[in-house]
């Protein structure tokens, strides 16, 4: 009973800032501590921090005309190639393709209000979408494994881990501005699109150090809050991420 009281007192001392700092110093113990308080929303502050850093990153991005211009030029080239393919396949006439390109380029004007509003809105909405989508997906897999957990704890694991993404987003855009091209802290810094091609370069942009760190933390967190085997946690977390990387890069060819 005495030992139980000591544990309770220690966990009660865990503040929001203690939880965030614990992600860097001792993530396993931090996740185990927050699991004792499933009704506390430890996820909220890190997500709000990510929203702020995403807005700052968007502002820095839009402020660099060279960087924005390069990205837009690549997007326009891909769009024109796609339209020409449809013309060749008989899915549309050349006139229809030209009209579609003209309309699309109006919305792709980096100096336009629509473009900037979309960028800022994405910076605000994306962190919350990522939080809840990932939390729901992990919840479904944990239920299939018959694990015992509280959904709020899953939110806390993902949310606290997103503090790493907040740091990565700012550093990524700073490196991009310095290098004059869209980059992340990873292989994309040394393996350029000119060398490996646009598709592989897009993959390397997503395979950055901070993304890997984020998913490692999530895997550790799920082990602690749901009491599942580490190997199962890493298989689920990294397996789903790899599937997403393959689909977004090679199937849909999404730009990062």
Describe the protein.
The structure is a single chain. By secondary structure, this protein is an all-alpha fold. It has a domain at 28-57 and 122-251. The protein is built from 12 helices and no strands. The longest helix is centred in the middle third of the chain and has 32 residues, at 113-144. 29% of the residues are buried.
If you compute it from the alpha carbons, what radius of gyration comes out, rounded to the nearest whole angstrom? 21 Å
Q: If helices are DSSP runs of H or I spanning 4 or more residues, what is the number of helices? A: 12
> In this structure, how is the largest beta sheet organized?
none
Strand content: under 5%
Succession of helices and strands: HHHHHHHHHHHH
Give helix % range: over 70%
Low-confidence stretches: 1-11
End-to-end separation in angstroms reads: 53 Å
Summarize the entry for a quick read.
The chain is an all-alpha fold and 256 residues long. The chain has helices at 2-12, 16-25, 27-34, 44-63, 65-88, 94-107, 113-144, 151-179, 193-196, 198-206, 209-226, 230-251.
């Amino acid at each position: 009973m005495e030992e139980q009281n000591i544990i309770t007192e220690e966990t009660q001392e865990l503040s929001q800032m203690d939880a965030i700092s614990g992600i860097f110093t001792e993530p396993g113990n931090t996740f185990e501590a927050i699991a004792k308080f499933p009704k506390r929303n430890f996820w909220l502050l890190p997500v709000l921090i990510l929203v702020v850093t995403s807005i700052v990153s968007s502002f820095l991005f839009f402020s660099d005309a060279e960087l924005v211009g390069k990205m837009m030029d690549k997007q326009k080239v891909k769009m024109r190639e796609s339209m020409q393919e449809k013309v060749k396949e008989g899915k549309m006439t050349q006139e229809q393709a030209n009209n579609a390109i003209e309309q699309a380029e109006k919305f792709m004007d980096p100096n336009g209000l629509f473009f900037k509003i979309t960028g800022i809105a994405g910076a605000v909405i994306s962190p919350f979408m990522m939080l809840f989508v990932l939390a729901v997906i992990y919840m479904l897999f944990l239920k299939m494994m018959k694990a015992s957990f509280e959904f709020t704890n899953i939110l806390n694991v993902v949310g606290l881990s997103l503090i790493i993404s907040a740091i990565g987003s700012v550093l990524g855009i700073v490196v991009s501005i310095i290098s004059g091209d869209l980059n992340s802290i990873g292989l994309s810094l040394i393996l350029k699109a000119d060398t490996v091609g646009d598709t592989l370069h897009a993959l390397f942009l997503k395979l950055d150090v901070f993304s890997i760190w984020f998913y490692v933390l999530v895997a550790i967190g799920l082990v602690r809050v749901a009491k599942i085997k580490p190997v199962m946690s890493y298989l689920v977390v990294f397996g789903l991420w790899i599937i997403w990387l393959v689909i977004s890069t090679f199937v849909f060819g999404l730009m990062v």
